[in-house]
Specification:
- The structure holds two protein chains of two kinds.
- Helix content of chain A is 74%, strand content 0%.
- Chain A is an all-alpha fold.
- Chain A has one domain.
- Chain B is mainly α.
- Chain B has one helix and no strands.
- The chains are: A mainly alpha, B mainly alpha.
- Chains A and B meet through helix 2, helix 3, helix 4 and helix 8 of A and helix 1 of B.
């Protein structure tokens, strides 16, 4: 079993809010400005259609964070490296924030377009279950005092949570759902007009960049905490 | 005629910006607290 290494923690001095982090914030702001001022309003849904440009990138960012959480959990279960557990913890928290964004923006689009805030369709219900599992993951981490037991239990839960991702993505094909079918992430060519597709691509890249930077600063926080615990 | 659904769009963007900003601030504050606890 590999003993936790304090070397990475010892190198941590700042909070990680550096130029790269603020570059990701600037990228998100630029994407939001493009959505607001340089993207046409869809004729049948009106301005609410623009929620799509933050809803889908938030979902993809949540998937990215969940995949990192699951992979780092597998690394922990295999190598028992404390850094992998800290990264999984950080990714779990970031995934929770992005899944919350998905669950908030979805109903705000659904109300004007469907006429209902919520419906128990497969895609929505599975995403809500994923949110509950991610919340449970964070609660579990706070409930177990023993460091190794906490890391092992939460790693198993993280891997199981990530198994939901393919079901969520394919739910619109597997079940009869009200949720729209993918219009970009599908085997055929995207069905969005070029201007909207460019906005969607820019927004997705900006959000994924921001998600990566949040992961980075949250991981640094985990290292700072560990250093504080070791020195206390 | 294009429906007036701008209020939902503004609400979604406001919530998302508040959520991400709040989370980034919480990381910064927790980091500051953790560093101040160093002996």
């Amino acid at each position: 079993m590999t003993e936790p290494s304090s070397a990475p923690a010892a190198r941590v001095t700042g909070a990680g809010f550096d130029a790269l982090f603020f570059a990701s914030v600037a990228a998100v702001m630029a994407a939001l400005a493009r959505i607001a001022f340089f993207t046409p309003i869809e004729a049948t849904q009106g301005a609410a259609q623009k929620i799509y440009y933050i809803h889908v990138p938030a979902a993809l960012s949540a998937y990215l964070a969940l995949i990192v959480m699951a992979l780092m959990s597998l690394v922990y279960l295999w190598l028992h490296d404390d850094r992998a557990d800290r990264m999984a913890e950080s990714a779990g928290e970031v995934a929770f924030v992005f899944t919350t964004a998905v669950l908030v923006t979805g109903p705000l689009w659904g109300k004007p377009v469907w006429g209902a805030w919520w419906t128990w369709d497969a895609r929505l219900s599975l995403t809500l279950f994923l949110w509950f599992i991610t919340a449970a993951y964070l609660v579990l981490r706070g409930a177990v005092d023993d460091v190794r037991m906490r890391a092992r239990y939460s790693a198993v839960l993280a891997v199981l949570a990530a198994l939901l991702i393919p079901f969520i993505h394919l739910s619109v094909y597997l079940f009869r759902t009200l949720h729209p079918m993918p219009i970009v992430l599908k085997p055929e060519l995207p069905s969005l007009p070029p201007e909207m597709l460019t906005t969607f691509a820019a927004s997705t890249l900006a959000f994924l960049f921001f998600c990566g930077m949040l992961l980075r600063v949250r991981y640094r926080l985990a290292l700072i905490r560990r250093l504080s615990e070791e020195l206390a | 005629m294009t429906p007036d659904t701008g209020a939902y769009y503004y609400a979604a963007y406001a919530v998302v910006v508040a959520l991400y900003t709040g989370y980034a601030v919480s990381i910064w504050r927790r980091g500051r607290r953790a560093r101040s606890r160093r002996p």
